Amino acid sequence: MQSDVGAQARELPLFPLNVVLFPNQSLPLHIFEPRYRVMIQRCMDNKEPFGVVLALDESHIADIGTATMITQMERMEDGRMDINTLGTERFRVQNWNVGADGYLIGTVVDYPFAEPEPADATLVRRVT
Questions:
Q1: All structural domains of the chain with their residue ranges
Q2: What is the mean pLDDT of residues 111-126?
Q3: Do residues 23 and 66 lie in contact, with contact meaning Cβ atoms separated by under 8 Å?
C-alpha cells in the first residue's frame, strides 16, 4: 500500500458512477441531474477536471478514483449534456464534503500506480 504522506492535497468535484475509469481511458457521459449540470459547467468554464469514483450504492463509494477532463460537450435545449471525457490520473480521497450545489467534493491526493518490482531470477527459474 502506498502512503499519502507528503502528497499535495487538493479539492476535486466528484461524480460517483457504477463504473471504474482508468487513466487514458475515454468515458462518454449523459449529464441530466441539475447538480451535475452545475458541476460540469464549472469544470468546463475553469478548464478543470472532476473525479470519477466507483459507487456500488449511496453508502459504498470507493476512495480511489480517476481525475477526468472533459474533451467534448454537447448541450441540449433542456440543459442536459452529452460529454466525452478522458481519464488522467488516479487519486485517493482523504475527506468527503457535499458542496452547496449538492454534489460531492473530495479532498484528494495523487495516487500513482506503483512500479512493479523486478522478478526474482531464482524464483522465475523455479516456477518455469
A1: 10-127
A2: 79
A3: yes
d(CA 52, CA 22): 9
Q: For the whole prediction, is pTM greater than 0.90?
A: no
Per the CB < 8 A criterion, the answer to whether 16 and 102 are in contact is no
> What phi and psi, each to the nearest 5 degrees, are found at residue 40?
-65, -40
What mean pLDDT comes out for the span 33-55? 97
> SS3 helix, strand, coil % of the chain, rounded to 5?
15, 50, 35
> Does the domain formed by 10-127 have CATH 2.30.130.40?
yes
Residues 18 and 29: their CA atoms lie apart, in Å, by 12
Question: Band of the pLDDT at 96, cuts 50, 70, 90?
Answer: very high
Q: Which residues contact 73 (CB under 8 A, 6 or more apart)?
A: 40, 44, 81, 82, 83, 84
